[in-house]
Design brief:
Keywords: Hydrolase. By secondary structure, the chain is α+β, with helices and mostly antiparallel strands. It contains two helices and six strands, in the order H-E-E-H-E-E-E-E.
């Protein structure tokens, strides 16, 4: 019987898996039921499940959760193109289009422009019915923080 092929985990694929591990290791993500996937260079997807613990007083998801999901998706889309340094969010604009109830949400991030020092990426939140609930655009700048030194970022 032939052995299963070993997946090639080098280059962009290794960087993508390392970013996914970095996301999972971040302490803030212990507060959310979420999982990052780097779909391809410049594209990310985060699956979230939101519950009543994320609600404001009127019974819908608080804006801080929108921001976190949008910022993370845009950030990881941009950082998937940078293999040596951690990016930092320098600005973020978001637009709320509908309230989110408890349940599953997808944050889709996509790099728009920039390849040297400043990157621009956008993200959108898609609710369980497939409707857009929010959209945002961020700018991200290279930091002096090496990715290789961060807990969870291990390129195998």
């Amino acid at each position: 019987m032939a052995a299963e092929p070993v997946p090639d985990v080098s280059g962009a694929d290794a960087h993508a898996r390392a970013l996914e591990a970095l996301y999972a290791e971040a302490p803030i993500n212990r507060l959310f039921d979420s999982r990052l996937e780097i779909v391809s260079p410049g594209v990310s997807r985060i699956s979230f499940t939101l519950g009543p613990e994320h609600f404001h007083a009127a019974g819908a998801v608080h804006g801080t959760s929108y921001f976190k999901m949008l910022d993370d998706a845009a950030f990881y889309a941009a950082n998937s193109l940078v293999t040596d340094r951690f990016l930092l969010t320098t600005a973020f604009n978001l637009f709320f289009t509908r309230p989110l109830p408890a349940g599953p949400v997808i944050a889709e991030g996509r790099w728009i422009s920039g390849r040297r020092r400043v990157f621009v990426a956008e993200a959108r939140l898609i609710d369980a019915e497939g409707e857009e609930a929010a959209r945002g655009t961020g700018t991200f700048m290279r930091s002096q923080i090496p990715l290789a030194g961060l807990p969870g970022y291990a390129r195998g």
